Amino acid sequence: MQHSSLSFEEQVARFKQMVAESKRIVFFGGAGVSTASGIPDFRSSGGLYAEKYGQLPPETILSHTFFMLHPDIFFQFYRKYMLYPEAKPNICHLKLAELEKQDKLRGIVTQNIDGLHRAAGNIRVYELHGTVYENECMECGQEYPLAKILETEGIPRCSCGGVIKPRVVLYEEPLNNNVVIGALREIANADMLIVAGTSLAVYPAAGFIQDFRGKHLVVLNRDATSADASAELVIHDDLTRVFAALD
Description:
There is one protein chain. Helix content is 31%, strand content 17%. By secondary structure, it is of the alpha/beta class.
């Protein structure tokens, strides 16, 4: 039952009730969680994937093959469209950090690479697609912070001469196995799963929610998703409005 006939206030009241009675909540989020922090999403009409960079779609530029063949163009695009070092956690991130401090939230599984969940104070974060804050030399493995990418131009290089690659999962690359195992374990053990700010269009990540066997499945997203039909509660509204109402 999705409670689609309920008012926003009634939907939020039901959401709060579910949170209150749950002990092992897991949050599965996507780009829509960070739009209120000034980071554009990918797949909406005004998102990054509606753009073209020259004649190239972003999916091409953000592929492993393109990175290896044209790292100069990749880093032009990456610095311009993928890095938002001034972004701050919004009410969604902050409320989730509170829930973890209360030991109700057992984990965050995120498709985002912006690091905002960690910046908000969450510790149990499974970053399926990596993070812009970690970078490493492809030759010697030397690790570098985001500042190294920001302060360089062109192709960032290690002191050994190797190319520094962000620890971000590009198209054609596999997800980190340890992150996947941890994320699936948390989802499988959760009694409540909140799916928010994601179109559930990116696989394999979107398939993770199929491992949920708990009591409450909630979908919070501006647009309809493939999980709506199986969710107990669906709220199609602005995420910040929903999380602000959790007070």
